[in-house]
Amino acid sequence: MTGEPTRRPVRRAMAGLTRPDRPMADLAGANISRPAMDKHRFAVGLTVFRPDRSLFDTLLETVRGQAGHVFVVVDGPSGEAIEAEHLDVLRDTQNVTVLALLANAGIAAGLNRLAEAAGTAGFERILFFDQDSTVDPSLPARLSSALDRLAERGEPVAAVGARPVAAAGSDTRAPRYRPRGEPVAGLSAVEFAIVSGLMVDLKAFRAIGPFAETLRMDGVDLEWCFRAWSRGYAIFVDPEAVLEHRVGTGVVRLGPLAFPRQREDRMLNYVRSQAICLRLAHVPLRWKMRTLLYVPVQCAVFALRSPRPVRTLSRLVRAAMKGLLITLSRPLLP
Question: What domains sit in the chain, N to C, each tagged with a CATH number?
Answer without folding.
Answer: 10-245 (3.90.550.60), 251-325 (no CATH)
